[in-house]
Amino acid sequence: MDRQILKNTIKEIFAGSKGILAMDESISTANKRLGAKGIPQNEEMRRKYRELIVTTPGLNQGIGGAILCDETINQKTNDGRPMADVLKEAGIIPGIKVDKGAKALAGFQNEKVTEGLDGLRERLIDYKKKGARFAKWRAVITIGKNIPTKACIEANAHALTRYAGLCQEAGIVPIVEPEVLMDGDHNLQKCYDVTEETLKILFFELYKYRIDLEGIILKPNMVLAGKESGEKNSVDDVAKATVNCFLESVPAAVPAIAFLSGGQSAQEASAHLNAINKNFKNRLPWIVAFSFARAIQQPALDVWDWEDSKCEKAQKVLARRAKFNAEARQGNYDS
Ligand code: 13P
Fold it and tell me: Is 294 in the pocket of ligand 1 (CB under 6 A)?
């Protein structure tokens, strides 16, 4: 394994104040998001939407890496160029989602484990040929009555670790994503505790399996009260809880934390990221950036409504949102 290759990729992705755009929604999730806007749910519309994103002028001002899904890395723009090549030409590193989704964990009610390890070594070689230099695997941890169980967290940490090892062997940077969901009526403290436990178990597993921590990107949730809790926390309180939780559980050897947005509005996600970077500037041992999907794409999707005439406007909104998050990385975002 050439550790320097991994480090260089991470450096390039987060150069200046850039972050990651997640545009790797599965076919069913992409259909759901398009369908909610009345857009036809078919392969051509998904291709068209993704072409809109990768051809956005100025996207590279705020975005250093973009995560694709299997369908998109195999698609071309209207003029016949592979989507990954279009990103590369714009100076954006293509990445690839390689997990095969979160499936019911046998014997455990309402808990999931992410699958996709079978054949992964070979798939990574293929994706690398297609231009991917980093990958993503998402584990999902649900908070509810008597859950998460330690068994569920451990099963997901193990799969994330095995995936990370295969990525590093292939010279591909693994984005390690243990997402504690916002769904539920739990309070901020509960999210803190579950996030802390998940990260501690994850990092012990990564250590056990000899993962090079300097060659991963951690993609976690922020520490937030559950969506149905009714609890309102200030932006500064969320930033403080999130930073304290991560200082407790994430080794300083990890070069970068790139948060997911998890269902927060675009403005909330940027404001939280901004407060983390602004209020704790001198205490963060890692780059603290973003790897948002909804919080970057949704405002653009809201104006697009699949008409060619609205393409330019949607691209402007997308590039603006990306830039706002790059500003938030520096603590300079002004909502
Ligand atoms: P959201 O930012 O919409 O949570 O998506 C990030 C992501 O890639 C989830 O895997």
Answer: yes
SS3 call for 27: helix
* Ligand 1 proximity of 292 Cβ (cutoff 6 Å): yes
CA of residue 96 to ligand 1 center, whole Å: 13
CA of 197 to the centre of ligand 1 (A): 21
User: Using one digit for the tens of pLDDT, what is the confidence trace for 60-78?
Assistant: 999 999 999 999 999 999 9
User: In the chain, which residues have pLDDT < 50?
Assistant: none
Tell me the CATH class for 3-331.
alpha beta
Question: What torsion, rounded to 10 degrees, do the Cα atoms 135, 84, 21, 56 define?
Answer: 180
Q: Select which of 48, 136, 219, 327 is catalytic.
A: 219
Asked, as a colleague might, if the bond just before 299 is cis with ω within 30 of 0, I would say no
Encoded tokens for 36? 């909610």
The count of C-alpha atoms lying within 13 angstroms of the C-alpha of 134, restricted to the half-sphere facing its C-beta, is 35
Ligand 1 contacts CB of residue 259 (under 6 A):
no
Question: Residues 24-50: pLDDT tens digits?
Answer: 999 999 999 999 999 999 999 999 999
So where are the chain's domains? Answer: 3-331
